[in-house]
Design goal:
Blueprint lengths: L1 H10 L6 H6 L8 H13 L8 H11 L5 H9 L15 H31 L6 H25 L1
Length: 155
């Protein structure tokens, strides 16, 4: 989903607001190269009014390390696995919204799994800091609520 989200952002940046981009945490991306591309996109922000797609891509490339330029170029042209609207040439809003939700949900799930693993390690450690356990437990509950809200958006 993260690759398709980046494809959508790079091919149709006008569909994504700065707030949309801010919702996706680059640290939540599984692939390090995807993380770097998203950081570059977030760094330049959404497509400015009157800006060409080529000009915006140039700004993204300027913000990204040289090592990911081929990936940016690839993501910018690889076909999306969705039928585009024949009148507008854009993918359906439901598709891009579902990608945003899915990438965010996967990132939250990854944080939950990491926190649970840490809690299991701390639970068997007789010298574990109990305050750290309580803090982690509260954070875990917050992430569970966030994940539930993301899943509820779908239903």
């Amino acid at each position: 989903a993260e690759r398709q989200l980046l494809q959508s952002i790079l091919q149709h940046p006008s569909l994504f607001s700065g707030a949309d981009l801010d919702l996706v945490d680059p640290a939540g991306m599984a692939a390090p190269a995807h993380r770097v591309v998203l950081e570059a996109v977030r760094g330049v922000g959404p497509l400015a009014q009157g800006e060409t797609l080529a000009g915006w891509h140039g700004r993204v490339n300027d913000a990204a390390p040289l090592t990911v330029h081929p990936l940016v170029a690839e993501l910018s042209v690889d076909p999306l696995p969705v039928r585009h609207d024949t009148a507008t040439g854009l993918p359906p809003a439901s598709y891009t919204e579902s990608l945003l939700r899915r990438v965010r949900e996967v990132a939250v799930s990854r944080r939950i799994n990491d926190a649970m693993a840490t809690m299991r390690r701390l639970a068997v450690d007789p010298e574990a800091d109990q305050e750290q356990l309580r803090t982690l437990s509260r954070q875990l509950q917050e992430w569970e609520r966030e994940r539930a809200a993301l899943r509820e958006e779908v239903g």
